[in-house]
Specification:
Blueprint (H helix, E strand, L loop, with lengths): L3 E3 L3 E11 L5 H18 L8 E5 L4 E6 L12 E7 L2 E7 L5 H14 L4 E9 L10 E8 L1
Antiparallel strand pairs: 1-6, 2-4, 2-5, 3-4, 3-7, 6-8, 7-8
């Protein structure tokens, strides 16, 4: 695993929905939030960058969102989440989503070996869909203290 430490500021302005991962079912919770978010985005014809972005926070909180081309009307009821990371670890996973469960612990171990401390939020950025699961791209980011 090749985890890169980045000290260039990353800013994300996301719109979507948040929730609590009941029974620590982070993926299941995020998928439900993501589906709800896409229904709102599509039904309101909101232009977007097309990438699902999941944010994991303290106390089992999860946010599923997308970067929009413009600020939506308040009647969409989408939640806004603005993030600014100044130091973070980055790893790009290429392959089936089913292998992502292994990425987090391996990434955290490598970060610790490099002498850094992982803090929240953790972010997963899902690339554009392809039917060939061996070509699926997911960027994994861990905030660092």
């Amino acid at each position: 695993m090749n985890v890169e430490i980045i000290t260039k500021k990353l800013e994300l302005d996301l719109y979507g929905f948040s929730g609590i991962a009941t029974d620590r079912d982070y993926a299941g919770t995020a998928v439900k939030l993501m589906d709800k978010m896409w229904r709102v985005v599509r039904s309101n014809g909101l232009g977007n960058k097309g990438r699902n972005i999941w944010v994991y926070e303290n106390d089992h909180r999860v946010f599923a969102g997308v970067e929009l081309d413009s600020i939506p009307d308040s009647n969409t009821f989408l939640e806004r989440k603005s993030l600014a990371l100044t130091k973070y670890a980055y790893y790009k996973h290429v392959g089936p989503y089913g292998l992502l469960k292994q990425v987090g612990p391996l990434m955290n171990d490598e970060i610790k070996q490099q002498g850094f401390e992982v803090v929240f939020p953790h972010i997963e950025i899902y690339g554009h869909w392809t039917n060939d699961e061996n070509k699926l791209e997911t960027e994994s980011l861990r905030s660092l203290k």
